[in-house]
UniProtKB/TrEMBL annotation:
<dbReference type="InterPro" id="IPR006549">
    <property type="entry name" value="HAD-SF_hydro_IIIA"/>
</dbReference>
<dbReference type="GO" id="GO:0016787">
    <property type="term" value="F:hydrolase activity"/>
</dbReference>
<dbReference type="InterPro" id="IPR004446">
    <property type="entry name" value="Heptose_bisP_phosphatase"/>
</dbReference>
<keyword id="KW-0378">Hydrolase</keyword>
<keyword id="KW-0963">Cytoplasm</keyword>
<dbReference type="Pfam" id="PF13242">
    <property type="entry name" value="Hydrolase_like"/>
</dbReference>
<dbReference type="InterPro" id="IPR023214">
    <property type="entry name" value="HAD_sf"/>
</dbReference>
<keyword id="KW-0119">Carbohydrate metabolism</keyword>
<protein>
    <recommendedName>
        <fullName>D,D-heptose 1,7-bisphosphate phosphatase</fullName>
        <ecNumber>3.1.3.-</ecNumber>
    </recommendedName>
</protein>
<dbReference type="InterPro" id="IPR006543">
    <property type="entry name" value="Histidinol-phos"/>
</dbReference>
<comment type="similarity">
    <text>Belongs to the gmhB family.</text>
</comment>
<keyword id="KW-0479">Metal-binding</keyword>
<dbReference type="InterPro" id="IPR036412">
    <property type="entry name" value="HAD-like_sf"/>
</dbReference>
Length: 183
C-alpha cells in the first residue's frame, strides 16, 4: 500500500477522548478530577514524534453554568499538560468554549475552535487535518470545518453521525493514522 501523507494537524476533543469523562451533566472542575484514558498520552506522543501539530478543542459549558471558573479550567489544563509530560507527550495548543449552548460560534458543532487551531498552525485549510472525538458534535464540527473525522465509539454503540472512520480509542485512531503513513 502506498503511504499516505501525515495529517497536517490533529484536533482532539478532550473529555472522553484524552481524559475520562465526568458523569453526564458534570464537569472536571479541579485537577484532582482529571484522569487520562489508557493509551491517550502514548497516542499524543506518537503524533509529537511524527511532527504532527496537536490541538485540543473542548466545550466547557460548566464555566457558563457557574460550576467552574476560567482559573479552575486553567488549573485542570495545567494538570493535563503535567500528566502528558510525565509520559513524554505534549499538546501544541488548547482552545476551549466557555459558553452556553446556542450563544456563540465556538461551541462544537460550531467551527470556531477548529478555525483557531488552523490559524495557530498556519494552515490554509483543514482538508488534511483530522478531528478526533467521542461525540457527534465533534464529527459535525470537523466536517463543517472541512477536516477528516474519526469518531471514538465502542463497536456496538449507535453512530447517529457518519464519521470518515470509527475507532474505539484515541490510541487505536493514532496507530491507524500513523501506520498508514509509515507503511
Ligand atoms: Mg468528548
Ligand atoms: Zn463558545
Amino acid at each position: 500500500m502506498k503511504p499516505l501523507p501525515l495529517p497536517s494537524a490533529v484536533l482532539l476533543d478532550r473529555d472522553g477522548t484524552i481524559n475520562v469523562k465526568a458523569p453526564e451533566g458534570e464537569y472536571v472542575t479541579a485537577p484532582a478530577g482529571l484522569r487520562l484514558i489508557a493509551g491517550a498520552a502514548g497516542a499524543i506522543r506518537a503524533f509529537n514524534r511524527a511532527g504532527v501539530p496537536v490541538a485540543v478543542v473542548t466545550n466547557q459549558r460548566g464555566i457558563a453554568r457557574g460550576l467552574m471558573s476560567e482559573q479552575d479550567l486553567e488549573a485542570v489544563h495545567a494538570r493535563l499538560e503535567q500528566l502528558l509530560e510525565q509520559e513524554g507527550a505534549f499538546v501544541d495548543a488548547i482552545f476551549h468554549c466557555p459558553h452556553e449552548k446556542g450563544t456563540c460560534a465556538c461551541r462544537k458543532p460550531g467551527t470556531e475552535l477548529l478555525e483557531r487551531a488552523r490559524r495557530r498552525f498556519g494552515l490554509a485549510t483543514l482538508a488534511d487535518a483530522v478531528m478526533i472525538g467521542d461525540a457527534d458534535s465533534d464529527v459535525l464540527a470537523g466536517h463543517a470545518a472541512g477536516a477528516r473525522t474519526v469518531l471514538l465509539r465502542a463497536p456496538a454503540a449507535p453512530r447517529p453521525v457518519e464519521a470518515d472512520e470509527v475507532a474505539v480509542t484515541l490510541a487505536e485512531a493514532a496507530e491507524r493514522l500513523l501506520a498508514r503513513h509509515f507503511a
